[in-house]
Amino acid sequence: MKPLLKIMLFLASIFASTFILLNSTGLITVEKIELWFEIAKNVNTLYVAIVIAGLLFADLFIAVPTLTVIILGGYFLGPFYGALSAIAGLFMAGTCGYVISRKYGDRLVNFLIRDQAQRENALSTFNTHGPVVILLSRATPILPEVSACMAGMTRMKYAKFLLLWFLSGVPYSILGSYAGSISTLENPTPAILVAAGLTASFWLGWLIFNKKTNG
Question: For residue range 97-112, what is the model confidence (pLDDT) as tens digits?
Fold first, then answer.
């Protein structure tokens, strides 16, 4: 397990560094994202959908508040088009992370773990537990991108990865967009409740998985 954790923590540190950088510079904030949506909506609602998908795709490279973007998408576009835009963005991010890691991931693994037996152990461990990791990855920021990259590195079948990615991301997008669509600035309660409920559900899944794995 340690070799696998070493790889995942290294990937997480890379994604986390972008979060720290963006927070320190203020390049992307919730207020700015909301402003971009307002400007795009005043021009054409299609541009709002493009901004949503683009931001969620960019989350692969820079830290973006994913659930906040999805909720705002529902607020500006409604539940259907908000969810559709979010799913498109998540699909692009997951596929890109998978493809890049499948092509170049060996170099990173060989660099981080010199011993061949440990490398094989790390990859086989993810092959065993990877599906659950992908399904529950929305519990925390960064983990979805890490899991997509790990799926590519371990050469998980793309169809299998995509199914798991959609099983995790589609309900997440639908619920987040719906919450945004029924929320207002005066009454943000639905968005807050759904955000809390989604996070709690994924964490409960992790607790059950951890108990069964270690029990």
Answer: 999 999 987 787 777 7
Rounded to the nearest angstrom, the gap between the alpha carbon of residue 167 and the centroid of all alpha carbons in its chain is 13
Closest by alpha carbon to 148, among 39, 60, 46, 27?
60
Which phi and psi angles does 114 have, rounded to 5°?
A: -75, -35
User: Which residue has 């909301």 as its token pair?
Assistant: 34
- Number of helices and strands (H, E) in the chain? 9, 0
CB 8: neighbour CB atoms within 10 A? Answer: 19
State the average pLDDT over residues 122-136. Answer: 81
Those residues whose C-beta lies under 8 Å from the C-beta of residue 177, and which sit 6 or more positions away, are 70, 71, 73, 74, 77, 78, 79, 80, 82, 83, 86
On whether the CB atoms of residues 148 and 165 are closer than 8 A, the answer is yes
Task: Give the start-to-end residue ranges of the domains of the chain.
Answer: 2-208
Q: What sign does the dihedral 87-136-171-167 (CA atoms) show?
A: positive
| pTM of the predicted structure, to 2 decimals | 0.81
Instruction: Select from 74, 78, 150 the least CA-distant residue to 109.
Output: 150
pLDDT of residue 45: 80
The per-residue DSSP string of 17-55 comes to HHHHHHHHHTSS-HHHHHHHHHHHHHH-HHHHHHHHHHH
Q: How many CB atoms lie within 10 A of CB 160?
A: 13
Give per-residue pLDDT as tens, 9-27. Answer: 777 777 667 666 666 665 6
Helix (H, G, I), strand (E, B) or coil at 153: helix
